[in-house]
Design goal:
Chain lengths: ~475, ~550
């Protein structure tokens, strides 16, 4: 199904749910001869038939906490929550799992259904009562609610993954919306960022691990989330409180928003940019500041975020772009985000470098720019956070095992945790994680990193373990 | 199992939540009413916690349950506390023993917060989350926050697709064994106390308001703008920033921006686009919205720098005149009104017509202010308009018009003032008389002399008459002196008292004129039997004699 089509059906499905819930509410108080009920039925008939036009049968089903239209889960935002919640409860009360409308429903059929639905609440076996009454009607049938097993609590890895992809998905959605000039509320961004802040506190390493996978969807989306995560992790090291962390995360999430104005052909160009293309790329901080200031009335958020968007490619020594005429000191948030941005960008195979640097090499390059292009103080904190071998570095151990760094050790910077992907015999293994601080009986370290590796082949494999 | 007592206590607590919500929305938090309700609420909690460990509320859409008893229910959409929590995903809130007064206060402030504005990024959940309360816990239902719910599986599938097969992976492994680069010995500098101190300084700096920085960036963006769109957007941003600054009562920064734009708008060596855009911005901030904000600021702030306001106003476009006239009538503080009047004196010169439209305002005090402004501007163009205003029903307006007439002069003014002399309100007459005196023209003189000679003049009370003579004394010529001499010499049998009053006034007038040539005449009546008359004669002589030393200054 095409995206647009899906969107349209979703819209209609939401309509259907809203109409149905409105109708049931009215019918609770009035009988079916009441005018409000009659016009409600008519509206529902037209929504159903419209849907039936392109779907033949319209099956509205409740599974777990969600409604589905045939096999498409009906997505809804907070504003519809109330109606949806009402319907969920009413359906559950009656053990009703679904209503199927077959094309060309008419007023009478719907009226029978509504009457059956309402009166069933007095019955001992509500579903049976509805089913019996509906057996005379051809165009509407009902299904019983299926019990689904209670899901077990999520393990942290799954939770982190969920948070992470939720954020990326949100980032892609909001950027598209801002691009098309749609009105956006940042309430959701704040909830997303808040959920990341919570996990930064508890599962920092897992979350940083997620930033290593970069080979999917548009670069800008996961890059924005990665920079946000890296900035917040750094912010936490700098001792920021929740509010500052949330602010920082929000600003970072939107730092590259100006790229929505860069044509995709340029953004995704496999070769290096020519001078004209660079000229366009270099406009994205300016465009970003514009987009953020246009979002709504000027307030603290738009001010801070526009500053970051404008400054994030200005270097510590004010070289970089856009060219500015008057010298000013870069904002603290800009400098933090700049460090995170560098790191994620040069370890990715997009835009700024065609060949991604492995994490440890990336740090090396960044150190070379300390005090000139990067703020030395912030960078120092950053490097202390990610260690000599940042998460995601592919390493060969003295045991001839090959793995990737999956957790850092704050005390022994060169002895992180490593997840083994190839054992000493050269066989692919399912990924046990070893701690390089472990010693044998002779008090010798069991494993030590001897080489770091840069190979896209491994990289793609890491993704599997991180998932 | 909680008893009935608990339930009642919880119901009371919920009631206090609702009441706090209402009161805290209406008054600033430090208002005694607010403090009082929050204290009451805290006291209730203290009472509850003296027996119970915790208070756990289950949130439904239309009700709140405590231990499966409904302690609140409402089916409304507005003011439904259950729904208020429910719609943001809150499903349970638990208060635990040890809840501090501060935390409860903060909680109550959060629930009173106005979330309706577009520019609010918070919902109840994020605010609670940000506070990170020790003894208030809550459960939030997970809601799908993004548009695409199975984004995760799509992304994972895409990653899977690119996954390296085992064979090439092992090939790579062999390759690494042989060729991989050895570890570079990178030393990481450990963090020092100095680093932490430097960081503390950075944090301190970060607390300052960042608007100044944004403004610098906006001016940089000026230079970076290329398209018409860019310039239009920038115009909007500058207007937005000015609005924001006025909202923050930061007139200094706002004025700084305007002065800079005002300079740019005709600066040499600046592109035409930038000059035009600067001009445009100044026009766009001369709107009702900005002027209202300015007015609110003037009324609301105690630290207004008058010079800043003046500079601010000077940069505005004449379009600001109308909205300024409008707010003139709404401002509460005298000082605010004064500043706006001053502003209108500056701006009004640029477009008198716009200013004079204010004369049609329904509020007399606004009209009076506008007339004052017109007087200060001193442009005779205003006179024509004021002929209409002089018919205004309010004496205070009339008086102001009369003063304006006197100051501005011009054709028709004398006639209008002459009409005012017939006004039933003496205040108006007096004002007109004074202004006629100020005009000092031949026509003005005639007008007054004619009034004095009129048959019914004598019937007026003494003080009123005296005023006329006082005004006419400003003409110190022979005609007036002769006129006075005639009155002094005039005797009559009828209405003698009135006649003596007139003669006394004439003596008074000669005294004010101070010409020694009047002395013989005055001397003649020095011992007149009428006490009032002779007193004025004596006083006039004394005055003229006294003037002797100072020469013929008059
Ligand atoms: Fe960027
Ligand atoms: Fe970036």
């Amino acid at each position: 199904m095409k995206k647009d089509q899906e969107k349209e059906i979703n819209q209609k499905a939401r309509d259907l749910l809203n109409q149905l819930s409105a109708l049931l509410r009215t019918s609770h108080v009035h009988d079916t001869a009441n005018e409000a009920v009659i016009s409600g039925i008519d509206r529902l008939v037209s929504v159903v038939n419209e849907l039936a036009d392109d779907q033949q049968t319209v099956g509205l089903k409740l599974r777990g906490e969600y409604f589905y239209l045939n096999d498409l889960r009906i997505r809804y935002s907070l504003e519809h929550l109330i109606n949806f919640d009402f319907l969920t409860r009413e359906f559950k009360k009656r053990e009703l799992g679904g209503v199927i409308f077959i094309s060309n429903v008419n007023h009478n059929d719907i009226r029978t259904f509504i009457a059956a639905f309402i009166s069933s609440s007095f019955s001992q076996k509500p579903f049976d009562s509805i089913e019996k009454k509906m057996s005379e009607v051809q165009s509407v049938t009902v299904e019983k609610l299926m019990k689904i097993a209670e899901s077990e609590p999520l393990d942290p890895k799954k939770m982190v993954r969920k948070t992470y992809f939720n954020a990326v998905s949100y980032a892609s959605g909001i950027m598209r919306k801002i691009h098309t000039g749609e009105k956006v509320s940042l309430k959701t961004s704040k909830r997303i960022v808040a959920s990341v802040v919570d996990q930064i506190v508890e599962e920092e390493q897992l979350l940083l691990g997620m930033t290593v996978i970069k080979e999917y969807d548009e670069y800008t989306y996961h890059h924005s989330v990665n920079v946000s995560i890296l900035s917040m992790a750094l912010g936490q090291r700098l001792g920021m409180n929740r509010k500052m962390l949330t602010d920082l995360g929000m600003m970072a999430l939107f730092h590259d928003i100006g790229k929505i104005n860069v044509p995709n052909e340029i953004l995704n160009k496999p070769a290096s940019f020519d001078e004209d293309e660079w000229k366009i790329i270099r406009k994205h901080p300016f465009w970003g500041a514009k987009a953020l200031l246009k979002l709504r009335k000027i307030d603290e958020f738009s001010i801070k975020s526009a500053i970051v968007a404008f400054e994030h490619h200005l270097n510590y020594d004010l070289s970089g772009y856009p060219k500015i005429r008057r010298r000013f000191e870069l904002d603290l948030f800009s400098r933090i985000i700049s460090v995170a941005d560098w790191y994620d960008a040069i370890t990715s195979a997009r835009v700024y470098t065609r060949t991604p640097l492995p994490p440890d090499r990336a740090l090396y390059v960044m150190l070379e720019n300390s005090g000139t292009r990067l703020d030395p103080l912030i960078l120092k904190f950053f490097i202390n956070m990610v260690g000599v071998f940042p998460i995601g570095t592919i390493v060969m151990l003295n045991t001839n095992e090959l793995g990737f760094v999956s957790g850092t050790n704050q005390l022994f910077l060169k002895r992180p945790k490593v997840t083994i992907i190839i054992d000493r015999e050269g066989y692919r293994v399912t990924g046990t994680t070893v701690d390089l601080t472990e010693k044998d009986e002779q008090n010798e370290y069991i494993r030590t990193i001897i080489k770091t590796v840069n190979s896209a082949k491994y990289k793609m494999t890491i993704a599997r373990y991180l998932q | 199992m909680p008893g009935n007592d608990d339930i009642y206590q919880v119901i009371e607590i919920i009631r206090l939540f609702l009441k706090s919500k209402k009161i805290l929305k209406m008054y600033p938090f430090n208002n005694p009413l607010c403090i009082n309700i929050m204290d009451t609420c805290f006291a209730k909690f203290t009472e509850f916690f003296s027996i119970n460990e915790k208070l756990s509320l289950k949130i439904g859409q239309n009700n709140i349950l405590y231990d499966s008893e409904a302690v609140y229910s409402s089916t409304g959409k507005e003011d439904n506390l259950a729904l208020f929590f429910f719609k943001d995903g809150l499903r349970e809130i638990t208060f635990k023993r040890g809840l501090s007064r501060e935390d409860l206060y903060d909680f109550l402030k959060i629930i009173s917060f106005d979330f309706s504005s577009d520019s609010v990024d918070d919902d109840v959940v994020t605010l609670l989350w940000e506070k990170d309360f020790q003894n208030i816990q809550y459960v939030v239902e997970e809601i799908t926050l993004s548009d695409e719910e199975d984004y995760e599986s799509r992304a994972v599938a895409e990653i899977e697709e690119k996954n390296t097969d085992d064979e090439s992976l092992l090939g790579a492994y062999e390759d690494t064994l042989r060729n991989g680069s050895s570890v570079k010995d990178m030393e990481i500098a450990l963090l020092t106390d100095k680093d932490l101190q430097d960081l503390a300084v950075e944090f301190e700096k970060d607390e300052y308001d960042k608007t100044g920085k944004l403004i610098e960036i906006l001016f940089e963006m000026f230079l970076l703008s290329e398209t018409e769109d860019d310039f239009n957007d920038l115009t909007g941003f500058f207007v937005g920033v000015i609005e924001y600054l006025l909202g923050m009562e930061d007139i200094d920064t706002a004025t700084g921006i305007l002065l800079k734009l005002n300079h740019l708008k005709d600066a040499n060596g600046v592109s035409k686009e930038i000059r035009n855009c600067s001009k445009n911005i100044l026009i766009n901030i001369s709107t009702g919205n900005i002027i209202n904000l300015l007015g609110n600021m003037l009324d609301g702030s105690n630290k207004i720098n008058d010079k800043m306001i003046e500079d601010f106003v000077k940069c505005l476009d004449e379009k600001a005149i109308k909205p300024m006239v409008l707010i003139l009538g709404d401002l509460k503080k005298i000082h605010s009104r004064k500043l706006i009047v001053e502003a209108l004196i500056i701006l009004g010169r640029r477009n008198m017509d716009s200013l004079m439209e204010g004369l049609n305002d329904s509020r007399w005090y606004v009209i009076r202010n506008i007339i004052y402004v017109l007087r200060k501007i001193g442009d005779r163009k205003a006179v024509d308009c004021l002929f209409k205003t002089i018919r205004h029903g309010d004496v205070r307006v009339k008086k102001e018009v009369i003063r304006a007439f006197g100051e501005l002069g011009g054709a028709g003014v004398l006639a209008a003032l002459r009409n005012c002399l017939d006004d039933p309100d003496y205040q108006v007459e007096l004002a007109a008389l004074t202004e006629i005196g100020n005009i000092r023209s031949e026509g003005a003189k005639r007008t007054i002399l004619k009034r004095i000679s009129a048959g019914d003049f004598g019937e007026r009370n003494f003080e009123e008459k005296k005023k006329y003579y006082e005004v006419i004394s400003k003409w110190k010529d022979k005609e007036v002196r002769d006129f006075m001499a005639d009155i002094i010499d005039k005797r009559t049998f009828f209405g003698r008292t009135r006649n003596y009053e007139n003669r006394a006034c004439a003596a008074y007038c000669l005294g004010l004129i101070g010409n020694r040539e009047s002395l013989p005449l005055l001397d003649k009546y020095r011992n007149d039997g009428n006490r009032l008359f002779s007193e004025f004669i004596t006083e006039a002589i004394r005055q003229i004699e006294h003037e002797k030393g100072s020469g013929k200054r008059n």
